[in-house]
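Incident log, entry 3
Record: Proline iminopeptidase (317 residues)
Problem: checksum mismatch between cached and fresh output.
Input:
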Amino acid sequence: MSETRRTAYPPIQPHETGRLEVGDGHALYYEICGNPAGKPVIFLHGGPGSGCSPTHRRLFDPTRYKVVLFDQRGCGRSTPLASLEANTTPDLVEDVERLRAHLGLGRVMLFGGSWGSTLALAYGERYPEHVTEMVLRGIFTGRRAELDWYYREGASRLFPDEWERFLAPLTEPERADPVASFRVRLLDPDRTVRAAAARAWTDWEARTVSMRTLHDGAGAFGASDAAIAFARIENHYFVHDLWLEEGQLIRDAGRLAGIPGVIVQGRYDVVTPPVTAWDLHKAWPGSELQIVEDAGHAFSEPGTLDRLLVATDRFAG
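Fresh output:
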């Protein structure tokens, strides 16, 4: 008998939207969906720099959860778009805390994938008393080995064709350090140069994120203002090692003891390989690691989506 997998909840609209001034000229867009009296969960999007989408609302039972989504500094509907000023991991951790306090949420559940898992861990280790549970996917902690795997040598050996396209905008000398070289181009005053770099940067992710190829539409995303903002912000974080000490989030995972956590990880995730999820699981007392045997990095892959929905349903209480 074939396995029956869960699919996302039906589309919903927010019943409240707002903007929160967080200082340094930044204003965050946020929205609240689901049950106003439900269990509060804060959704932390990936990237950094990608923003939230309506699909993210559908990961939670709208009758049982009060779902808070927000676009992080410089991306999505937050302003100013693409700003790198005062845009660091510590800034975003404090933004989560400001939003939680602003909305009077008390203790909250955190949900995050990829960079969203990084931010969730950074917040949870800073404010464990404010977290009830965590559901994390595609674990990324910003260690040098993780960045080098994806932007130097590792994923490039599995996707040599896509790697060649990724490096195409760079000169031969620039290819020795793609992240630093793309930064120069993503900060270029000429929008055409920025757009070409952003297209290459975003296509590399779009074409390696899933076990099912996502080539359709990958290039079209590259020239938009949103794509340039995404590439600029993500590159900005990686150039600065995410403003984290080497191994910090794994080292400090003991601070999460007592916080139930489900870690969902695709076996064939080439963006954030399973070793990081494994290391986190071993360092986080009481965490639960679920390896999805037929999945890559994307949350939308059927096996991963199923596990995430089962986890959010379990924690709904």
